């Protein structure tokens, strides 16, 4: 988008350049709204903050988990879900689905 | 003026000194450095990573034989500080990533530091052992018990030298005090207390007491639907043990005085720069969110970092900063893509040099920026393996915004946004800086003649 040698600009380009002069942020905002028309009306507000506060949330119900585990014994074990990290409300997690959270027993490479 | 410590940036030529870490094609997530901190003398440099590990480097004694080699930093100790956990009660995965490390001032032969992940703060003691007792009566040298009936003589055990061993032991674990994610810890100047801050609350701890902490700030609204801002960083004043500041996602800073009340929900000072409402856009609030706040060593100023700028505030003036520095303003016309790839939420830190005359912060493409507050000059440098010959002088880098790109410049569209310098540290009294570039730690020093 770098300006090339001066050429007579169309009316559209002129307006765009004017907008850029006024505020590149507003141009970017227009781009974003064009791609995501349903983006929340309250920018930077509760949506972002709630997402931030909920970091790390995995949906796990020990009752459902144990019942699913019991049911599994009678059935063929299904193949593990391709995406092991997303375990959300609808899907009852099974032992295979829970992410393996093992500590790093390997020493840091900075100490090598 | 401290001898040998140039306060004018034009006098300082930064040179490559060391780089730690490996050159891997794919970076293991656990190796990503998440915090870097010098101790109060600059003798030790600690790093924490996403895998919950801490590595401490120690500066070697400068030898008179090699005056050109300023003391290099070598590995002193490394340990696993935090491990991943799963809170079954709240269905929360707790990352082992070390968010912050803060050193305690040294009071005896051992070193102490605080390290924290999202939920738990730990006090670690790092001590040296270079002697061991030998000549026990009831045990032999391998530790096996001797048959008492075979012992005919009594001897006094003696301490004999052994190879230096550095051990790290967790001395205190401060747990279960934070519902939300800890973003900051700060040691108080009284050396008896420290604070830990999460998104909505700040707690005050005594180092000796792990089963209690005082809540000193609580901004959680009664109805979470009304939540409009979160705490992003907090720090104690370097000299006044009653004073601290905390920053918010709305670009404001509050200074609180613990003498006024037990719960410091009402600030003593409120720092906010007025915004021109006609300039407001969807991105305004996001890019105004403060990612780091640091007191100057003098205690007179605070520095804040938001997405595009670094600002210096005078504690005596609340209505606007006294200085504003553009870190990478060319990103303003890239905000849409930076929002889509989440880079707009990157949390950059900022640091002061020892004399508070120069400030430094990171950017993308492994670039980092320094601003001299006196001369108003700034420089962009790069942490890269290409400039890693010993004592090679770092060449200033320049980003070209539009129009003709000069030979040495890089265009905005060519910047690598996956190479972000979020964490840097400046030696307390010398021109030595540590720069964390993803999984590598670079150490730069100024040129020694």
Low-confidence stretches of chain A: 1-6, 76-88
Count of DSSP helices of chain A? Answer: 4
CA-based shape of chain A: flat
Largest interface: A-B, 46 and 58 residues
Low-confidence residue ranges of chain B: 1-8
Q: Strand share of the residues of chain B? A: 35-45%
Please compute the radius of gyration of chain A using only Cα atoms: 25 Å
The strand line-up of the biggest sheet of chain B is 1-32-31-30
- Please bin the fraction of helical residues of chain B: under 10%
> How many beta-strand elements of chain A?
0
Biggest sheet record of chain B: 4 strands, antiparallel
What gyration radius of chain B follows from the Cα positions, in whole Å? 24 Å
Q: What is the CA-CA span between the terminal residues of chain B?
A: 19 Å
Element string of chain A (H = helix, E = strand): HHHH
> What percent of residues of chain A adopt helix (DSSP H or I)?
40-55%
Overall pLDDT of chain A: 65
The N- to C-terminal Cα distance of chain A equals 45 Å
Keywords (chain A): Cell cycle, Cell division, Cytoplasm, Mitosis, Phosphoprotein, Protein phosphatase inhibitor
GO cellular component, one term (chain A): cytoplasm
Function (chain A): Protein phosphatase inhibitor that specifically inhibits protein phosphatase 2A (PP2A) during mitosis.
Protein name (chain A): cAMP regulated phosphoprotein 19
Describe this structure in words.
The complex is a heterodimer of chains A (112) and B (449). Chain A is an all-alpha fold. Chain A has a domain at 16-72. Chain A has four helices and no strands. Chain A has helices spanning 11-22, 24-35, 46-53, 62-74. In chain A, helix 1 crosses helix 2. Chain A is flat and about 65 Å long. Mean pLDDT of chain A is 65; it is low at 1-6 and 76-88. Helices cover 2% and strands 41% of the residues of chain B. The model of chain B is unreliable at 1-8 (pLDDT under 50). Chain B is globular, with a radius of gyration of 24 Å. The longest helix of chain B has 6 residues, at 335-340. Chain B is an all-beta fold. Chain B has helices spanning 284-288, 335-340, and strands at residues 14-20, 33-38, 44-49, 53-59, 73-80, 85-87, 92-94, 100-103, 111-116, 121-134, 158-174, 184-187, 193-197, 201-206, 209-218, 231-236, 243-248, 253-257, 269-271, 292-295, 301-305, 309-314, 323-326, 350-352, 358-362, 367-372, 378-382, 399-400, 410-411, 423-426, 432-437, 440-446. In chain B, strand 22 (309-314) and strand 23 form a beta hairpin. Chain B has a four-stranded antiparallel β-sheet, with no helix packed on it. In chain B, strands 2-3-4-5 form a four-stranded antiparallel β-sheet, with no helix packed on it. Chain B has a four-stranded antiparallel β-sheet with strand order 8-9-10-11, with no helix packed on it. The interface between A and B is large, with 46 and 58 residues.
């Amino acid at each position: 988008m770098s300006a090339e040698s001066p050429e007579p600009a169309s009316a559209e380009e002129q307006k765009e350049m004017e907008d850029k002069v006024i505020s590149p942020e507003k141009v970017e905002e227009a781009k974003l709204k064009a791609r995501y028309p349903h983006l929340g009306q309250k920018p930077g507000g509760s949506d972002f903050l709630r997402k931030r506060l909920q970091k790390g949330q995995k949906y796990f119900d020990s009752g459902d988990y144990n019942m699913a585990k019991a049911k599994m014994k009678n059935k063929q074990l299904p193949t593990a879900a391709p995406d092991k990290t997303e375990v959300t409300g609808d899907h009852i997690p099974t032992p295979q689905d829970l992410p393996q959270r093992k500590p790093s027993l390997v020493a840091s490479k900075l100490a090598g | 003026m401290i001898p040998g410590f140039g306060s004018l940036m034009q006098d300082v030529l930064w040179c490559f000194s060391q780089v730690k870490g490996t050159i891997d094609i794919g970076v293991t997530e656990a190796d990503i450095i998440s915090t870097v901190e010098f101790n109060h003398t600059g003798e030790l440099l600690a790093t924490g990573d996403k895998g919950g590990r801490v590595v401490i480097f120690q500066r070697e004694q400068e030898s008179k034989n090699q005056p050109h080699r300023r003391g290099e930093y070598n590995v002193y100790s490394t340990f696993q500080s935090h491990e991943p956990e799963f809170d079954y009660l709240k269905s929360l995965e707790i990352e082992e990533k070390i968010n912050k490390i803060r050193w305690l001032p040294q009071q005896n032969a051992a070193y102490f530091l605080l390290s924290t992940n999202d939920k738990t703060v730990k006090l670690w003691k790092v001590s040296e052992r270079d002697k061991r007792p030998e000549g026990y009566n009831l045990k032999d040298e391998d530790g096996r018990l001797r048959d008492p009936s075979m012992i005919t003589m009594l001897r006094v055990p003696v301490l004999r030298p052994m190879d230096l061993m550095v051990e790290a032991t967790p001395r205190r674990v401060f747990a279960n005090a934070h519902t939300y994610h800890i973003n900051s810890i700060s040691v108080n100047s009284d050396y008896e207390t420290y604070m830990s801050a999460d998104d909505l609350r700040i707690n005050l701890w005594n180092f000796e007491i792990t089963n209690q902490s005082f809540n000193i700030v609580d901004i959680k609204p009664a109805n979470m639907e009304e939540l409009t801002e979160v705490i992003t960083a907090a720090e104690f004043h370097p000299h006044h043990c009653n004073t601290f500041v905390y920053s918010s996602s709305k670009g404001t800073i509050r200074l609180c005085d613990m003498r006024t009340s037990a719960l410091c929900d009402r600030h003593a000072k409120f720092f906010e720069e007025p915004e021109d409402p006609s300039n407001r856009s969807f991105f305004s609030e996001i890019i105004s969110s403060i990612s780091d706040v640091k007191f100057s060593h003098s205690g007179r100023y605070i520095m804040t970092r938001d997405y595009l700028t670094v600002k210096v505030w005078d504690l005596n003036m609340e209505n606007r900063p006294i200085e504003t520095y553009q870190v990478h303003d060319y990103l303003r016309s890239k905000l849409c893509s930076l929002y889509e790839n989440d880079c707009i939420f990157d949390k950059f830190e900022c640091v002061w040099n020892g004399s508070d005359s120069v400030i430094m912060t990171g950017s993308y493409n492994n670039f980092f920026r320094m601003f001299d507050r006196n001369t108003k000059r700034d420089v962009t440098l790069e942490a890269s393996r290409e400039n890693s010959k010993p004592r090679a002088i770092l060449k200033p880098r320049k980003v070209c915004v539009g129009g003709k790109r000069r030979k040495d410049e890089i265009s905005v569209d060519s910047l690598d946004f996956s190479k972000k310098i979020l964490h840097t540290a400046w030696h307390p009294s010398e021109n030595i800086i540590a720069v964390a570039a993803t999984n590598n730690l670079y150490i730069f020093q100024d040129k020694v003649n």
